[in-house]
Amino acid sequence: MERPMSAAKIPETDSIQELAHFWDTHDLTEFEDQIEETPERVFVREDTVDLRLSPDESRSLRRFAEARGVPYQVLVRELAPERIHAA
Description:
By secondary structure, the chain is mainly α. The protein has a domain at 55-86. The protein has 3 helices and no strands. It has helices at residues 16-24, 55-68, 72-86. The mean pLDDT is 86.
């Protein structure tokens, strides 16, 4: 006697890698009864800004970031909102 196939469930995870692997190996039509439309965005992309600095400014920024123990990109993301809101 064959056992009935158990219905697969969509994984409840925030891991992009796990979800990507799952959807690479499954068909969306198998899960129509588990899918619901949501009015809000699930993934929000950040906006990017190009920042041109002189060589001296770039070196200073990198030294300052290194002294704080963070990558310079993190330092810029921390400092920019402070300066914008102070203006």
